[in-house]
Write a structure and sequence with these properties.
The chain has about 60 residues and is an alpha+beta fold. The chain has helices spanning about 1-10, 25-30, 55-60, and strands at about 40, 45-50. The protein has one domain (about 1-60): Glutaredoxin, CATH 3.40.30.
């Protein structure tokens, strides 16, 4: 949940986000994520495995 909180905090920059915690392994693997946590932005996997750096999260939200 640390990754979700990090994204929500960065979203305070004024970007609307929808954070969804997916626990179904089939759905996770269906996105191409092989290690969690995984982050998908607009249908693209931008991160998998470990907690992302805050700078990375900000760059995803600005794109």
């Amino acid at each position: 949940m640390a990754t979700a909180k990090l994204i929500e905090k960065a979203a305070a920059l004024g970007v609307a986000v929808q954070v969804e915690k997916v626990t179904d392994i089939t759905a996770i693997m269906g996105c191409g994520v092989m290690s969690t946590p995984g982050v998908v932005v607009d249908g693209q996997v931008v991160h998998a495995g470990g907690i992302p750096r805050p700078e990375a999260v900000e760059s995803w939200l600005k794109a």
